[in-house]
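Hi all, long-time lurker, first post. I run a small reading group and we've been trying to get comfortable going from sequence to structure in the token notation. Rather than ask abstract questions, I figured I'd post a concrete chain and ask someone more experienced to write out its structure so we can walk through it together at our next meeting. Sequence below, copied exactly:
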Amino acid sequence: MVQGRVSARVEQLNESATLAIDARAKSMLAAGVDVVSFAAGEPDFATPNFIVEAAVEAARDPRNHHYTPAAGLGELREVIAERSAHLSGLTVDPRQVVVTNGGKHAVYSTMMTLLDDGDEVLIPAPYWVTYPEVVRLAGGIPIAVPTDLETGFKVTPALLAQYVTPRTKMLIHVSPSNPTGAVYSEEETAALADFADRNGLYVVSDEIYQQLTYGFASAPAIGSFASDALAERLVLVNGVAKTFAMTGWRVGWVVAPTDVADGVIKLQSQLCSNVANVSQRASIAALRADASETQYMRDAFARRRETIVTLLSAIEGVDIMWPQGAFYAFPSVQGILKKEFDGEPIGSSYRLAELLLEHAKVAVIPGEAFDAPGYLRLSYALADEGIVEGIGRISAFVARL
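-- Answer (accepted) --
Happy to help. Here is the structure in token form:
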């Protein structure tokens, strides 16, 4: 007998904590509440005008009013192949590229294509909330590999080796990291590539923040250190969302060995056909542009990083690492959790996030969402004055405890 209206597969999913808290903050703002939100994982800039104009022109072209290949527009696949080869150190053919509905869709399709029931996936923690959920959807088993502030939020081959079993199939590699902003050095990246190679692991490298770094042009790519054998088990996922302030345009991609790419294309042909053509045309304009066209965003993030880390460091009970990439601060708040509110210890970063939203009107994401209790994630993709105001409210709240 059928037991429930919703499948067990979907019932086991956890709602995205980042989207849920961001939605709550936006709802409060819409109701007239003066909330400063550090919750959103997206640039606060408008999409650059030259990209918007490309989309307007594309919308007028009847070619874009119809279905196109499931793998994406040929012109976009060529541009992505060229860019991926330049950034990854791999030889990339356009046939290895599949355009997806954003980076999240790229991760989902990759897991559905590569994983069978019971396959184990090593996921360094703290991790982006979506990784373990899509692994479970694909029948896999997510294995969290814990890191912390003392280790710089990075895994090593020695640490990973403790979690490898005969069922381990994949390692997820993310640099720069969401939520920590950690970036692996060339030496550290090479060591991880060697580890995956020796253990016969597939590697999914999420490179969505690769060019949002501080002090260097881009994060070292694991593809640059991949042997020929590892290159056949290496999948890159990326998109235009973060680098070009295009989160709402929903364009990402998978770069994979041709047989894996063909599997992703087959899945996509049954799942959603093709990505919106107008968004694909806009992405071609974005990817062809000179880096100087979006330098103002990177400059703003670098300035905001200085501001938020400096202000957070001044709060008693906060310990923080300077993020080397992305646009997140990930402070430890262990010292605050020992303090009391209304006569009771705060106890958890989840409770602290609740109190900050209720009493300081500041939205942050608790570390529990990333399998890292005792931390908070604060996005600094908001205006400079918002950062100063929001951290000021947090500081004032903590001072009252």
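A couple of things your group might point at:
The chain has a mean pLDDT of 95.
The first helix runs from residue 8 to 11.
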